[in-house]
Design goal:
mainly alpha; 4 helices; Four Helix Bundle (Hemerythrin (Met), subunit A)
Length: 129
């Protein structure tokens, strides 16, 4: 089952960013499927590490583009990136400490990571770039 599906409204018009956004949706769906299928804790831990690495790399790309363009909301957008990465690390720690509670919280949080950030910060970035 897919949690998120690509929508044309997600397109920013920057090929590298759009490609990474599609990849993040696929990775979030993989994490969700892993949680739904009740895979081992090691497998969930592996896919969480993968999503953290992928999102970190994506945020670095976005931040470089914003700096290059002199984006006025750079500091606020970067702060949102840091908060999201902190949330992911906290969820990874919770999952390691308590897999049952961590699994439930992850399932509730996955779609929000992409949707909320995209609908607010990335939508404004799209208008500027």
């Amino acid at each position: 089952m897919q949690l998120l599906q690509w929508k044309p409204s997600f397109t920013l018009g920057i090929a590298s960013v759009d490609t990474e956004h599609r990849g993040m949706i696929n990775t979030i769906n993989s994490v969700y499927a892993t949680l739904e299928d009740e895979h081992s804790e090691l497998e969930v831990d592996r896919v969480l590490g993968e999503i953290h690495a992928q999102i970190s790399a994506h945020f670095a790309l976005e931040e470089r583009l914003m700096r290059t363009a002199g984006y006025a909301e750079y500091a606020e957008h970067k702060n949102s990136h840091e908060e999201l990465l902190d949330q992911i690390r906290d969820l990874m720690d919770l999952f390691s400490a308590d897999p049952v509670a961590g699994r439930a919280l992850l399932q509730d949080s996955l779609s929000n990571w992409f949707g909320l950030h995209f609908a607010t910060f990335d939508a404004r970035l799209h208008l500027q770039l």
